[in-house]
Amino acid sequence: MDTSESIVVNEDGSNIDHAMSNDMMDLSNVRVLLCDTDVESCHEVLALLKKCCYQVIPVCSAADALDALNSQGHCIDIVLAEASLLISNGAKIFNFIKLDVNIKHIPVTMMLDEDEIPLVLKGLMLGATDYLVKPLSSNELMKLWTHTKRKGSQLVY
Fold it and tell me: Most buried residue, 42, 71, 135, 138, by most Cβ within 10 Å?
């Protein structure tokens, strides 16, 4: 892989530019399912994730997210989704992930606006790993991969 197209980070999220070891990861190996019903927000987050060199599968609805998890779940490392999308419709996305033995290891990070903070506890109780408050930054997203390590995802370091 051309190193000019990838970012390698330490576990603490800081950039490095030398050979990788066990506590470092090439972010271009991390596949993120991005779920956001707001098209403008989805484009902004998609651009930030690509800037960090993540592989991204963007979807705009709960149905599309379920389809992506069903067809590509085996190769998704992280779900980054709008909190209201995760919690709406009886938490179908959380339930789908929890009940499927092949994808239940995938960590779910919620994105929410400041006025949605009350959703944090509900999302965490349903199974979210973490949450991020919009507007997101590249620095926050560069640390997103650490959830895969905590959840035991099978990534190459």
Answer: 42
